[in-house]
């Protein structure tokens, strides 16, 4: 099955600045940051041309043994002595911040979760056990409000003071700070009002130390019409605008930027799950609903970071938990990112609000090769999705005119509800393929064109015949480089399958897989004499990204 798609780029028409909105990464396990595998990946991001990248991670305040495990981490930053007096230990907290900075990146500092000695145990479910039982803290204690908001205020002030003293005001001003994560669900055992109270004390503390520090909230989950996250989001923005400040008793609370989360689906533990796929439309629709609320409360001048923006919600789950996670190993993940980020960029322009998606993906040490977790690398091998970020990182900042008659336009957002919250039956079958992209002028004047093809149905087989016209070049000879991500290019997963899908490849087998993890060319470089317009034709599968550089 094939269809003709016409793409037109006009290099003579500048459309303004192309925001590098993709420079945001996150993950749960904070202790993976400074281990060798984590540092190796951080260095790969720092090596991208548009670095630094901003990194957000959970559990930075938690109590534990400071050894990373799935969905948990700890730093032991705070404890109390026998007299109930606070004791601060920044050793492991600094390991994490130092790893970001020493590799050439920046922290996106998440302020959470609750240290064990600050937990208000009244929020714990009765278990018949002793609160000193650490398992109860690890299960639920870290989600609780503080036993003393004054002590929380002093703790946050101590953290901010330490960061400013160690790294300097100018450096810390360049970071992002965010309070908590998804307080509308199980990450927070308090109410929406109690989250607002926590925010008020936090805001007062950090800005006492550094008035220019950038603080945000509320980092709620996906916003669906009439859903709990939507109500929580409105409650928080209304409090910041008009509410009584719990800390100062004045009206309102300062909010420097805004965060919320968007996901394209959810795939729980189900070993024999029927086919299900993430939805681009559902994710983008959640972005729209969030931006509508931001406008409603008059915060449209604030920057918005979608501090988790992903195809699905369980980063640590893999193909052995739910077979549908297979898409994370393949070119599908790369084209899903390309499609959602391009649509988010369109919404950003349409609303006049700066919107930045954050990819909640990193790496897991010791996993089986191509485990299917939401990662950029597996056993040190760069996955296809990371090659998408290599493309992003190489791009210039001047947006050029780009049109495609194969794009799914944002008109789909006018429908009352896009996608489904329960993706157990959603396969994407029968949907049209989205063929779109954008063009920019590179740092040295070259024309850089990204054209992606994505269908929610991961099994769709289709061959788009791309007819690309590039105007505004003038009369000159050009060199054309054509890079590709698809099932056979920039995609080491295909080579891993050819090698017999080894769980722990080594020697020549590993080398063969690793050799295919870079950004690969579709064809040999070409030269062409252009008289105003360059015409190119090529095929694009249903899940693929073409990156053309015209010098």
Automatic annotation (TrEMBL):
Query: Which branch of life, at top level?
Result: Bacteria
A Gene Ontology biological process in which this protein takes part is: carbohydrate metabolic process
For this entry, the protein name equals: Glycosyl hydrolases family 39 N-terminal catalytic domain-containing protein
InterPro entries according to UniProt: GH (IPR017853), GH39_as (IPR049165), GH39_cat (IPR049166), Glyco_hydro_39 (IPR000514), Glycosyl_Hydrolase_39 (IPR051923)
Domain Glycosyl hydrolases family 39 N-terminal catalytic residues, every copy: 66-514
Q: Family per UniProt?
A: Belongs to the glycosyl hydrolase 39 family.
Any idea which residues are catalytic in this one? 182
- Spell out the Pfam families in the cross-references: Glyco_hydro_39
Lineage summary = Bacteria, Bacillati, Bacillota, Clostridia, Lachnospirales
Extract one GO molecular function annotation from the record: hydrolase activity, hydrolyzing O-glycosyl compounds
PANTHER family, sorted: ALPHA-L-IDURONIDASE
Keywords for the protein's UniProt record, in alphabetical order: Glycosidase, Hydrolase
């Amino acid at each position: 099955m094939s269809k003709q798609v016409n793409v037109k780029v006009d290099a003579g028409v500048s459309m303004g600045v192309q925001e590098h909105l993709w420079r945001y990464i996150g993950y749960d396990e904070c202790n993976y940051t400074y281990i060798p595998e984590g540092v190796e990946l951080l260095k790969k991001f720092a090596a991208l041309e548009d670095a630094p990248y901003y990194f957000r991670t959970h559990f930075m305040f938690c109590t534990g043994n400071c050894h990373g495990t799935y969905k948990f981490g700890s730093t032991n930053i705070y404890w109390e002595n026998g007299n109930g007096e606070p004791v601060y230990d920044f050793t492991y907290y600094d390991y994490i911040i130092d790893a970001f900075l020493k590799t050439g990146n920046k922290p996106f500092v998440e302020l959470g979760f609750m240290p064990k000695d600050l937990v208000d145990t009244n929020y714990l479910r009765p278990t018949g056990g002793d609160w000193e039982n650490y398992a109860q803290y690890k299960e639920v204690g870290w989600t609780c409000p503080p036993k003393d908001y004054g002590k929380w205020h002093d703790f946050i002030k101590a953290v901010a003071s330490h960061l400013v003293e160690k790294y300097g005001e100018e450096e810390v001003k360049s970071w992002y700070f965010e309070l908590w994560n998804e307080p509308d669900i199980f990450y927070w055992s308090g109410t929406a009002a109690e989250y607002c109270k926590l925010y008020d004390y936090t805001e007062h503390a950090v800005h006492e130390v550094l008035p220019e520090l950038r603080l945000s909230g509320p980092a709620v989950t996906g916003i669906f019409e009439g859903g709990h996250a939507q109500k929580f989001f409105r409650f928080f923005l209304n409090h910041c605008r008009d509410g009584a400040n719990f800390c100062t008793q004045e009206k309102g609370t300062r909010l420097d930027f805004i965060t919320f989360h968007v996901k394209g689906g959810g795939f729980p533990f189900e070993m024999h799950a029927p086919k299900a796929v993430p939805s681009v439309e559902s994710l983008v629709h959640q972005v729209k609903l969030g931006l509508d609320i931001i406008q409603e409360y008059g915060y449209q001048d604030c920057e918005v970071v979608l501090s988790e923006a992903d195809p699905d919600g369980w980063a640590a789950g893999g193909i052995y938990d739910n077979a549908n996670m297979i898409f994370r190993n393949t070119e599908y993940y790369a084209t899903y990112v390309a499609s959602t980020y391009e649509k988010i960029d369109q919404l950003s322009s349409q609303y006049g609000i700066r919107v930045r998606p954050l990819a909640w993906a990193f790496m897991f040490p010791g996993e089986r090769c191509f485990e299917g977790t939401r990662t950029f690398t597996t056993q040190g091998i760069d996955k296809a999705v990371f090659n998408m970020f290599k493309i992003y990182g190489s791009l210039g900042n001047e947006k050029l005119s780009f049109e495609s008659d194969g794009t799914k336009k944002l008109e789909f957002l006018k429908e009352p509800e896009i996608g489904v919250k329960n993706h157990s039956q959603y396969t994407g079958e029968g949907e049209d393929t989205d063929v779109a992209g954008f063009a920019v002028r590179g740092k040295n004047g070259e024309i850089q064109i990204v054209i992606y093809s994505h269908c929610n149905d991961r099994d769709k087989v289709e061959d788009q015949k791309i007819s690309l016209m590039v105007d505004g070049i003038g009369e000159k000879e050009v060199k054309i480089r054509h890079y590709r991500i698809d099932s056979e290019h920039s995609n080491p997963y295909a080579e891993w399958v050819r090698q017999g899908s080894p769980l722990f490849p080594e020697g020549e087998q590993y080398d063969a897989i690793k050799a295919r993890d870079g950004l690969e060319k579709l064809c040999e470089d070409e030269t062409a004499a252009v008289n105003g317009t360059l015409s190119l034709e090529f095929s694009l599968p249903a899940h693929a990204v073409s990156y053309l550089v015209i010098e």
